[in-house]
Predict the structure.
Amino acid sequence: MKGIILLVLGIGLLHTASAATHSLKYFYTAVSGDIDFPEFTAVGLVDKGQFMYFDSNTKTAVPKTEWMKREGADYWDRETQIAIGVHQTFKVDIQTLKDRFNQSKSTGVHVFQNMYGCEWDDEAGATEGFYQFGYDGEDFIAFDLKTTKWIAPTPQAVITKQKWDSDTADNKYRKNYCTQECIDWLKKYVDYGKSTLMRTVRPSVSLLQKAPSSPVTCHATGFYPSDVMVSWQKDGQDHHEDVEYGETLPNDDGTFQKSSHLTVTPEDRKKNKYQCVVQVKGIKEDFIKVLPDPDAANVVPIIVGVVALLLVIVAVVVGVVIWRKRSKKGFVPASTSDTDSDNSGRAVPQI
């Protein structure tokens, strides 16, 4: 598995709390091979926070937030049946993909994933949708909303593109879902969880270092919302040289974490003042940690393996992996009626 879910939105005025871009995203992930991970997982996220989960071991869709528990048994039964149906499709699809990529005899781990959903700016009213597939860490095929055609970035996806392009009725329905149905669901969920989704939580910020010659990590955790900037300053000026920016990752309590790594010599630390600055959207205060003299003993040492462990925890909690590229094209339909038994809108077409 080449990565975990990397959900990063652009950050504008972080201290502005009035307007927000809300998102509804689903991730379907199938894996094959010898790996201690469910064969299939389905995860739903609102504003990057998990609100539902299903895997092929439990075979039951469950709410992951208190505010989603207001949906009744019919809703969760329907989500369960949708996920079970997609699981069966993905079992066939992942074998088809292995054949197309000449991997039919491969004993390694292979990953097939579908990400779909929509975004809504609650101030400007702008919307966006996306529907895409990835295989073994790379883009496989994606839906273009403007042309209602499929984009095949790899030769192995051309057969699928031709098959799906021919179903014009289904493609029109997917576009309708993206611009209307998905947005309706998103607004409903945001209303359900507004007391949680609109809150702000201050971060806890720490400076971490494994050894005096190792990079210094500025780690911010426990903050909400997820829009955050973790940056470095040198002598009061923004500093980007020898800086590596991490991704925003979810914590299991609904908050988020993010790190930024600075490579600096002990000599340079003695001659200059370095500090980490953390800004969270909706919180006016900047959270600053000054990097002390290297001879000081108040930089918390990193326990070997902590970073790797965090990645494993996130992968288990979120239940998905995602390909590296982050194009936003396409979506998949969902039923708009709480009582509608027709789940075809959320079904994934066979490749």
About this structure: The two ends are 21 Å apart (CA to CA). The chain has two domains: 21-197+319-346, 204-312.
